[in-house]
Amino acid sequence: MSDLTDIKAAARKAAFARRKAAHEAANGVGSSLLSERLAEFRGAPLAGYMPIRTEIDPLPAMAEAAADGPVGVPVIEGAARPLKFSRWRPGAALKDGPFGARIPEVDDFFEPEILIVPLVAFDRSGGRLGYGGGFYDRTLELLRAKRTTLAIGFAYAAQEADNLPLEPTDQPLDMVITEAEVITF
Fold this sequence. Notes:
By secondary structure, the chain is α/β, with parallel strands linked by helices.
């Protein structure tokens, strides 16, 4: 195990503890700033995520956006592969996907131009610490090679960290939206 692997594991552990405490204190509140910011992009193909464990919930904002354009959720097709995004609608039939996240029962894939990205920790420079699978880094690299793709980290303010252990393959966020503020880079 490398030093960076150990450093990332320690950073994730600390960030998960901060996120859990923030999630318990939030009582489901948090997506109003996300909804406000997404209103600027109505109709653009968008991907969010189905929240798991203590992730901040983007579903209210995704439901609003779905009234004006395609909204998808990530589908993991295998280790070391980029994500695909299947169209999601409020109330659509879902099935269990990898890692406990729900996915649409019927695949309807498209490429989003805006991604709401879950995370474990973020910094004020657009750095993001994810779960360690590299799915979003590979996906953002692929999408950004084709067109401008906006990556919006969505997190509790308590998930902010200094000195994240980042690597050259880590794709930067364009903004982070918390329950308290919008941070642009």
